[in-house]
Amino acid sequence: MLNLTKQQKNEIFRIIENKGLSPSRFSWTTRVKNLTTGHGGITRGYVEHSATALVICHEGKDFRFTFECNEDGYYYSSLVPQLIPGKIVLAENWNGLIQKFEDWLDIIKYELEEPDLWKELPRGQALTSIPPDYSRDEKFSPEERRLVVEQLSKIEKFIIQSNQLSGASAIQVRQTLIYLQQRSETTSKLDWKNLFAGAIIGLILNKAVDNAPEIMKLCNELLSPFFHKLLQL
After folding, report:
1. pTM for this predicted structure
2. Of the candidates 130, 142, 171, 197, which lies 20 to 30 Å from 7 by C-alpha distance?
3. Is the CA virtual torsion 128, 134, 139, 144 positive or negative?
4. Domain ranges within the chain, ordered by starting residue
5. CA 75 vs CA 9, 14, 79, 183, 226: distances in Å
């Protein structure tokens, strides 16, 4: 367990304030979990592991950022929501972990202060028309999911670079595309198409981008193997 010093906790306090957030909304806790022991894929047993965590609750959601260090001296965090796909983020030193913490705070600030565009959509209104060339329940094949991931990566890169997004704005774009990647594994093509359209429109409206037609055109071109027309220009 990484025992934070008073100096480290005060540094975290000031970072929260500098982000325009109130430290009083956060609380410290000790998160306990069981880690497996063994090697070669064989579990020998479990050991209890404790980690210092900073948590905040908003609209029924529990967000957390743990401060941990392994035996090799590498710092890491088990955090919710994620910055990148995976359960943890790694850093070579304390300053690196603090940078990850600041990136995480950007997401938390967005969650606390920005509206939920999905809730503002008219109820029952379809975002896209249903094409006749596949069934309502058809899902992506493994090869199609691989292609979806590749194309979403290109879309993410184009939106961020063409609009020179950074900080919280760039993180929000990445988080949205990660979500779409994950949903492609479980939802039908039709459901995913509506999710994608709503998510991209939400990004365009929220980020006030200057090249919405170009973004929509690129989405249609890259995802044309699955949909005749994904977004209307």
Report:
1. 0.52
2. 171
3. negative
4. 6-113, 119-222
5. 16, 20, 13, 30, 42
3-state SS assignment for residue 14:
helix
Q: Indicate the DSSP class of residue 35.
A: E
Among residues 180, 179, 174, which one has the least CA distance to residue 192?
180
> One-letter amino acid identity for 226?
F
What six digits make up the tokens of 187?
A: 């939802």
Give, in order, the Cα–Cα distances in Å from 214 to each of 54, 64, 151, 220: 41, 37, 15, 10
Q: What is the pLDDT of residue 34?
A: 54
138 φ, ψ (degrees, to nearest 5): -65, 135
Judge contact between 6 and 57, C-beta under 8 A: no
Secondary-structure breakdown of the chain: helix, strand, coil percentages, each rounded to the nearest 5: 45, 20, 30
155-191 core/surface letters (b: 16 or more CB in 10 A; e: else): bbebbbeebebeebbbbbbbbbbbebbeebeebebbe
Give residue-wise pLDDT tens across range 76-96: 998 888 877 667 889 999 999
